[in-house]
Amino acid sequence: MKKMSVDDKLGLNKFYPDEHNPHIEIDPDFTDEKEIMRVVKACPAELYKYENGKVIFNHEGCLECGTCRVVSGGKVVRVWHYPVGSMGIEYRQG
Ligand code: SF4
């Protein structure tokens, strides 16, 4: 059996994003580049971007690992909770 790469395994996961109730909310007016870049670099799904002095985030594709919540210390991420039942990620292979 062929060994699967991490990207191949992640590609098997299914996502059911809750478009009307994002489980993560950021402070769009937060501008401290150093603090923002800590979150940008920490997110394994690369959902945070830093463009033109602003943080940009899309919760679709979130792995629900909680890393951004811990790393930001409440500075970039204002709200973090798990998606409501049946929404969010459905892991298949890791
Ligand atoms: S919970 Fe994990 S995957 Fe989701 S946005 Fe935060 S760091 Fe990225």
Q: How is this structure best described in words?
A:
It contains 3 helices and 6 strands. The chain has 94 residues and is α+β, with helices and mostly antiparallel strands. It has one domain (12-90): Alpha-Beta Plaits. The protein has a two-stranded antiparallel sheet. It has a two-stranded antiparallel ribbon with strand order 2-5. The protein has a two-stranded antiparallel ribbon with strand order 3-4. The radius of gyration is 14 Å and the shape is globular. The model has no long low-confidence stretch (mean pLDDT 93). Residues 24, 43-45, 47, 62-68 line the site of iron/sulfur cluster.
Tell me the layout of helices and strands.
Elements: H1 6-11, E1 14-16, E2 24-26, H2 33-42, E3 48-51, E4 54-57, H3 67-72, E5 77-80, E6 88-90
Antiparallel strand pairs: 1-6, 2-5, 3-4
In short:
The chain is of the alpha+beta class. The chain is 23% helix and 22% strand. A two-stranded antiparallel ribbon has the order 1-6. Strands 2-5 form a two-stranded antiparallel ribbon.
Query: What's the structural domain tally?
Result: 1
Approximate shape: globular
Helix content: 10-25%
Secondary-structure element sequence?
A: HEEHEEHEE
The set of bound ligands, ions and cofactors reads: iron/sulfur cluster
Query: If helices are DSSP runs of H or I spanning 4 or more residues, what is the number of helices?
Result: 3
The oligomeric status of these chains comes to single chain
Q: Biggest sheet, strands in spatial order?
A: 1-6
Alpha-carbon Rg, integer: 14 Å
CATH topology type: Alpha-Beta Plaits
Structural class: alpha+beta
DSSP strand (E) fraction?
15-25%
Number of strands: 6
Distance between the termini: 17 Å
**Low-confidence segments:** none
The first-level CATH class is given as Alpha Beta
Gross CATH architecture? 2-Layer Sandwich
Mean pLDDT: 93
Give the biggest sheet. Answer: 2 strands, antiparallel
